[in-house]
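Collaborator request, handled under Task 6.
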Amino acid sequence: MTIHTLLEQKHMTKYSLSKNSGVPYTTVNDICNGKAELIKCTAETVYKLASTLDITMESLLKSYLAERSSFELFKSHVCHTLKELGDIDFIIQTLEDDDITKYYERKWFAESLYLLAMLDYISNQNKIPLCSKYDAYRKCRLKDTIFPASIRAEAAVTNNTQILEQAKQEALPEFMRFNIVESEVRNVV
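Structure tokens returned to the collaborator:
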């Protein structure tokens, strides 16, 4: 859980966190805005913040320690999770874990929007209303189009950019809304 999320839950401001913990406001602000990494702060700083937020140092650092894998690996993991859990359990787990928000807060926009696209796609396939909690994210769009590695490779090898355009036209609308080209999410091995 990020400091920003904890502050919201505890109805606390960055200023009050700074004042109560003794950590300079600029440090707290930089951590919250992603300009400074909590994992690179001194143990004393982490301890002061964790104590003030009434959370263990380990719990505070946990959300900041996650390594970001390649986007292709992330997509594969999501598709395999869907296959293993099935549609309904995938929807339930995704909503309960709230990774869409967690990724977004980390500024992992591609992962956040891919997972939201998957949630929307599976919800639509099962005629389940979309979760309104993510309506603000549904207005977002990645600046650059993300194509599957296989499509990019084929276009590069054949020197044919028409392959990219065809992939866009065949992409699932729930994914294209975010500028992510995805046409097959169920055919995983």
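The cover message to the collaborator said: "The mean pLDDT is 91. The longest helix spans residues 109-125. Please let us know whether this matches your experimental observations."
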